[in-house]
Write a structure and sequence with these properties.
By secondary structure, the protein is α+β, with helices and mostly antiparallel strands. The chain contains 14 helices and 16 strands. Strands 1-5-6-12-11-10-7-9-8 form a nine-stranded mixed β-sheet, sandwiched between helices.
Amino acid sequence: MTVSDRWLLPDGVEDILPPLAGRIESLRRDVMDTCQRWGYQLVIPPLIEYLESLFTGTGHDLELQTFKLTDQLTGRMMGVRADMTPQAARIDAHTLGQEGITRLCYAGHVLHTRPRHMLTGRTPIQAGCELFGSASESADMEVISLMLETLRVAGLPRIHLDLAHVAIYESLIGEADFDRDTEETIFDAMARKSVPELDELLGDCPEGSAGSRLRKLARVSGGPEALVEARKILSGASESLDAALDKLDRVANMLTRDFPEVSFGFDFCELRGYNYHTGLVFAAYVPGHGDSVAKGGRYDAIGSDFGRPRPATGFSLDIRALVSLGERTVKKNGAVWAPADQDPALEGAVSDLRKTETVIRALPEDEGCNPATRGCDRQLVKKDGEWVVQSLD
């Protein structure tokens, strides 16, 4: 390795420098403070775990996104977390084991083997909330409402919310009884919304069959009219599908009532990223940005793999992405410059100021330095035997 290569970082991995690092940290704190004001308790899961724990209840996509390594103490395979939601589910089911409702929030780096798309890196800063112990629509609405509140805190000007229900796809694909390879091919085509591929895969299915309904649903997305069209396609299919559509309708009505400024729609083939979800799912978008800025939904199955089945719903977002998309202004107070003077009175003045202010103490090498280049807008000067703060101007 040459000297010039030693500072290179892997593709998709970056240093976060001032002032961006300060903006990211400020938003992380505000998001976590918002979640805690809603009653969500902060947890800090470990960066690495055994693979069996990380992959419990999750899908194949998450396994492909996870870096794997061997534990030198036990010889077992470990993984660097690619998603913190399964960790929160483990904490609820096994570590905490509380009865009743549990609300948890978290924030930290995750690591992906490859970027999810061209707009992201491989080390997003994930933040999110998870609500365990309630299968009610009130719980779903609380999580969606909190997600929208965090996006407001991030300064996103306009938000569009897409609603879907994973159980619709799962019910139809189960009824169709395809072999496993065909199911995976259909799922992949659905996730990419490749209508031509679905026509080729499902075009021979009889009218009214589950396969035919899936093919038609792939073309349905949009506002309230999409829900009407989906009802026509799924009419007479099953009571469980009717229940899923009814739930989407009720949630949409509540959103219209509580968040009139947020536009919303339905996408019945939205499967990307919902590796372990089982019911209502949702994703938030902003104009001009192709990927979702936050997403989540219901995942009632994960806890059973940890020995404690619990209904659960939650959401997650990428703090780094929100900082680049939001119109949030971070108020930054300037610092106070203290000279390199050994006066004991100056030591006391600096100590008192640092209780509420940022104070940068000059070092011998700072002689002749302009304090403004160090972010200072004031300085400590000695007047009449006392150290006082005055403007640099």
